[in-house]
Design brief:
CATH superfamily of the largest domain in chain A: Fumarase/aspartase (Central domain)
Distance between the termini of chain A: 50 Å
Largest sheet of chain A: 2 strands, antiparallel
Strand order of the largest sheet of chain A: 1-2
CATH class of the largest domain in chain A: Mainly Alpha
Order of helices and strands of chain A: HHHHHHEEHEHEHHEHHEHHHHHHH
Oligomer: homotetramer
Strand content of chain A: under 5%
CATH topology of the largest domain in chain A: Fumarase C, Chain A, domain 2
Largest interface: A-B, 128 and 128 residues
Radius of gyration of chain A: 30 Å
Helix content of chain A: 55-70%
Amino acid sequence: MRLWGGRFSKDPDQLAHEFTRSLPFDQRLAEHDIAGSIAHVRMLGHCAVLTPGEARKIEAGLERVRAGLSSGELTLDPESEDIHTEIERLLIEQVGAVAGKLHTARSRNDQIALDLRLFVREEIDSLRDHTAALQRALVEVAEKHLDTVMPGYTHLQRAQPVLLAHHLMAYFFMVQRDRDRLAECRKRVDLCPLGAAALAGTSFPIDPSFVAKQLGFDGLCPNSIDAVSDRDFILEFLADAAIAAVHLSQLAAEIVLWSSTEFGFVRLDDAWCTGSSIMPQKRNPDGAELTRGKAGRVFGNLMNLLSVLKGLPLAYNRDLQEDKEALFDTADTVSASLRVMRGMVTTASFDTQRMADALSAGFPTATGVADYLVRAGLPFREAHGIAGQIVQYCEKEKIGFEQLSVEEWRSFSAEFGEDIVKRISPGGAVAGKVSPGGTAPPQVKDQIARARKLLES
Amino acid sequence: MRLWGGRFSKDPDQLAHEFTRSLPFDQRLAEHDIAGSIAHVRMLGHCAVLTPGEARKIEAGLERVRAGLSSGELTLDPESEDIHTEIERLLIEQVGAVAGKLHTARSRNDQIALDLRLFVREEIDSLRDHTAALQRALVEVAEKHLDTVMPGYTHLQRAQPVLLAHHLMAYFFMVQRDRDRLAECRKRVDLCPLGAAALAGTSFPIDPSFVAKQLGFDGLCPNSIDAVSDRDFILEFLADAAIAAVHLSQLAAEIVLWSSTEFGFVRLDDAWCTGSSIMPQKRNPDGAELTRGKAGRVFGNLMNLLSVLKGLPLAYNRDLQEDKEALFDTADTVSASLRVMRGMVTTASFDTQRMADALSAGFPTATGVADYLVRAGLPFREAHGIAGQIVQYCEKEKIGFEQLSVEEWRSFSAEFGEDIVKRISPGGAVAGKVSPGGTAPPQVKDQIARARKLLES
Amino acid sequence: MRLWGGRFSKDPDQLAHEFTRSLPFDQRLAEHDIAGSIAHVRMLGHCAVLTPGEARKIEAGLERVRAGLSSGELTLDPESEDIHTEIERLLIEQVGAVAGKLHTARSRNDQIALDLRLFVREEIDSLRDHTAALQRALVEVAEKHLDTVMPGYTHLQRAQPVLLAHHLMAYFFMVQRDRDRLAECRKRVDLCPLGAAALAGTSFPIDPSFVAKQLGFDGLCPNSIDAVSDRDFILEFLADAAIAAVHLSQLAAEIVLWSSTEFGFVRLDDAWCTGSSIMPQKRNPDGAELTRGKAGRVFGNLMNLLSVLKGLPLAYNRDLQEDKEALFDTADTVSASLRVMRGMVTTASFDTQRMADALSAGFPTATGVADYLVRAGLPFREAHGIAGQIVQYCEKEKIGFEQLSVEEWRSFSAEFGEDIVKRISPGGAVAGKVSPGGTAPPQVKDQIARARKLLES
Amino acid sequence: MRLWGGRFSKDPDQLAHEFTRSLPFDQRLAEHDIAGSIAHVRMLGHCAVLTPGEARKIEAGLERVRAGLSSGELTLDPESEDIHTEIERLLIEQVGAVAGKLHTARSRNDQIALDLRLFVREEIDSLRDHTAALQRALVEVAEKHLDTVMPGYTHLQRAQPVLLAHHLMAYFFMVQRDRDRLAECRKRVDLCPLGAAALAGTSFPIDPSFVAKQLGFDGLCPNSIDAVSDRDFILEFLADAAIAAVHLSQLAAEIVLWSSTEFGFVRLDDAWCTGSSIMPQKRNPDGAELTRGKAGRVFGNLMNLLSVLKGLPLAYNRDLQEDKEALFDTADTVSASLRVMRGMVTTASFDTQRMADALSAGFPTATGVADYLVRAGLPFREAHGIAGQIVQYCEKEKIGFEQLSVEEWRSFSAEFGEDIVKRISPGGAVAGKVSPGGTAPPQVKDQIARARKLLES
């Protein structure tokens, strides 16, 4: 069955048919298509474009198709062109020729735009839930580690001591932005395109607001040409997803790094590792590696659709069919990655002793040495220079700051007093970072409190 | 001059220096860096980290550096490492060693984050102005063409008659989404990262809110580790710009198409064409071609930064330096493309006769034939089939709908009456599309009224 | 069944299992995996690592698995981790515990590298056939149109008359480069990685050359660490495919353009068009639109894998699993696009009259006017200026060159003689372009002859 | 000065001029443009299109322009449209109106194609030199470390002991493929497009082979339409560069990782590190981080040009102007990254003690335990399981394999003999991996010998 063909003298070439049909992937939209059709046919009845009897009959038929597909009593014909054609075919089986009236005042152009908007809206809601779940996991682990001091890194070099809780809360706020962006994208998704028909609107006396209300949309697309050609809402979703995938890849990369024997900061639960077919000792953080890698496909999907849309004239072009697989794959990938990261974070054990040990080398409190001198009145640049010389001296002697005597400190600057020792302890350094957003325990507790509020709202 | 080096036994290799320094491009941030430093030093004075005299002296010096760079009295040393180092060098020339105190409680990590946020905020405001200017141009041309009927296209095939005004308003609403997205991105840009220092916060008793207020920020970054590593605000800006570039490329591609002799719908003003060095007859729409092409670089810049950030561990890594050129290039490209499109649209002449002529071939009112039969009670699918047969017949006879007699119409379906003739005229077809957002003149006027309101708000 | 787990205290989390397993897509490599295993086990027998009996038994079992999967008697367990595990499970069913010996001196790391190389080699051969088929179609149509003159375009403006054959042959040579690149890529694919085992090589006395010979490889991977981590051969394949996709998108875009009523240069066969569900007159070039659009996914797949591989440390990381779907999708997409373009080109009708008519407007022979004056001794720049003025005059008078009298020609330059009329005819212009590679019929015939030779070799 | 304008009634808008002109970046092609023009004018003289005197005069003028630009006596007018226009303007200053004859039988379309081919050819030669230099550095360091055993990693987990030399040689062979790909790309670059003129060829009796020979080209572009629109050679160069950038990013990422205190495998020379403006202890591997990050821009440039070219109709479109900045930036980035990596590798110190120590934890010789049992006749799967249990036991006891008594070994399997102790030493494990390409010293020496040969050829 095809929804067109009156003017054609022959059937499509088999290869052409295979190449152009979308059922293999757009069947995922069956539910959305039926929901949209039910709202549409109710409106046609409401507006007297169809008789009440026709509308009721078609709606009942659509419900039976929905139920049949759900129960498996009805199945899609794998050879069909697309989900719209296929649902109509099944509807005809249920209600006969009156099914043909469903397409009144509607085209596949506005119909697919509707299906996609319903799908994206649903996925946004789902992803927002999954981001919140990951955030909750991060907060919970952070709360357990308000006393755990570890090296903060820049350039992958030990930089300054920070709380593990502080580090984890950085991810909380990264993910919060992802959740916020999705919420804003949703506003632009939440408009109903029906009524645009092929591109110019329709001459049937329809009421698109009725449909919009049925489907819970916030409003109508303002311009019918734009309504059928617009895929911004997918692009924006893919872009938001790509930024989220960056964050997930970063968290994943740190899990990989921290799981190495060299770092040893984290030990993943056995349920979240896999082994090797040849090396019996291996505990591989595969889920984290894959989360890191899968960011690539999310980027690729974005690049795909940007390239597809570039330079396309208005209004609908068949190129737009290429939006679906990129969309589905991105939604699935980010959803799974969020859940995997949540599972890993929740079940991981952090080796706080290794973290503490890691602070004894690499001079992560050297900034405190410079700051000490600045408080004593030296310009920062000069203080920084002296601290650098002390590091160089310790490296040569293969000792840490804590092994320097006060005399040795004073040999570099007369400003050093006894209290230098405490100031360069990791705990002392952390406690001192009291600027808002800083790593001192009260500041981190503030962040957690703020996070709790964001999760509740 | 370098801001570090106390522990180093030798200078960087010349190649290493060339490879890592950023002055050749980050000099663009000189103004932002000075503005940030002035706010910072005022705060240091306010919080008594510096004496009032020190703070005043440094601020005055910074003002002199700003004035000197602006007037050309001072020049940047092209060999310097980055703009922060270079501003500090110039400041030392002005005020001596006290300049070193400017870096108290600040690192280049939070400083560059601040500079970039100031820059992006400024660019967002500028791009929002340029999008509004393009929108105004579109509305003005649309208002002149409320009577101009042209073929609307799908698949680049003539589909249905639409108003030129309707077509142009589609672009209005596309660009409106760009403007809205930028406004939402701005909220996430508008947070002050200062106080994060290297990554952990600072132990000096500073007041970051004071700085934020001075610089007009809406709030503070909530987590210092995130504050120095976050480049989401650039990613989001690049993504918003990429979607805007898609729209511009589409408008540009239509201008190229419509400027062809084959379409002939538009004639660009001589001031917006260029000629050929070898073909004297050429009037090439180079500005439109380049706008179309330049979307590629905007996509590339987004892909660049996504790849850079993927899998980076916290906090600052030098890879982040790669954010700047992509950012600058995207801001400049989209800004120029918006202005070029505005210039072209404003000065172009639309050939309304060619548009009208184009409606006489290709059967763009065939949908109306089907709709006619549907109103007479036929299911849409059957009506569609009959209309397809009439098209096939006319094509064989090489005639248009308007040359069919009523008898001929009736030979396809007894439902056709005398009024079919009027219904398949382009004007009649357009007038009938009264659904909201449709192409009937009152609907398009509604869109224009809505647009005017959006521009005023 | 899992190929690891001795040291694990619990099973993987169900979500972790779903997330990490690859069977849903790597089952496509079943044939390649079995072929590789057969070669491997023969070698193990040949080298006496296994007894002749063991080797024979395993090989026979593998053959039965192959036959069983092919006939449908055996089916893959959809819950299995990957194709290697699954083939081994089926093998155990056939031959019992001896199956475990198949994995001697081999790891999944070198095994998957082998499977992928076999797959890519096969796909290259197939794509090279399909490119040749498209080239053949182009040559055949070109040969029919050695007399068809049409406008050549630059900037989508009519530039100079060219032969349709010449235009089509441009695509021939573009595709030829694709075919050449694939051949060169094949050389780098055609190396056997077996023997690398996990990454370090193996201590079993194996003979990788024996395996390589069995599988028709040209040589061995030179370094075992590189052998398991190298995915260059996929990257290069994806990049070659992306360039090919650019060419296909360009050909497709021209088919879309030429199918428009405005251009009207080509009419696709009914078997290669699709209609509209709402607009009965439509004949949409969907196959061409999709080919154009599908370039986006090919680019996206490339970007995906580049991002995945960036910054990965040696040797194998699980991120590499992300190579497969991108590879499969690209191979399928480019293969189908090549076949679709071939089908369209072969069956299309070119409207030579429309092409001829298109030469009567737009002054595509103006370059000839300038060249005429240059031959008479004027510097090109001056000649170009005069020709430009004549165009401007004709545009104002709304006439073509052919309507100018000799007196009018001479009013612009005394150098014009009677022969100018012939020189500015499209046929005359084409005939004159005798430079190698030019559009004069003998030159185009030379190109066709060269093309025939390339196809034969 | 503009090379066109005869038919135009006004000058371009200033914004249009700014937007479309390319001199700010194509000035980099000045040398190539002059070289091409000299070859062209010689040919025009040789073919008697110009008189010998004219040709000599123009050539001499071009030589003076070249010399003048090189010495700084002549400068480019920054307001000029492009490098071709600007060179012609300077030529007119030198030789007067005869300069206008240089453009005979040539268009900017074939001229820019020529300039770009000359540029890319040169860059390929230069990059091939730089890749060879990096390879030489790798071989030299490898030769020094034929005795250095370190952990090989998979999944960033210690996997099996390998030689540092073996690890470095993996990079050698990766880079070798880059060098090979560039050589093959060069063949497609090395064709002369001159004679194609605007797109159709030229009617002047020219000899393009003469030009090709002058400029050292291997042949002529076979089709003039393709000659002016083809940018494959840039795409392929960008793709080859992207793969090379992947390799460089991987090497760089390992340097970053190995420079961490946790790994501590390498210490970069002071000349190749940079410090922190705030943290005096820092020695940051900035050059490596930037090399890793800069892969992003190389990917972005490729994505840029792919997007630009997608769907462009033949022949020249102004969009093509966007090829240059992407090309220049990629060539510069990869060149600098290669040189930086070479500098870092050459001067780095490898901490062989840390590497050795790293082998004492993480059970990297567990595969050898399994292999031991396989040799004793157990199927691999069973052997693997036993080895896994031993690892689990040792982990629980917090001991290494070397601390197990033979009795303990035997408690897991009766097959273990006294020699197990030697077999699971790192040195023993490495020595055993004698398969071709494996990590045993003789195999690695073979690789080095092969590498030396490749470098000599």
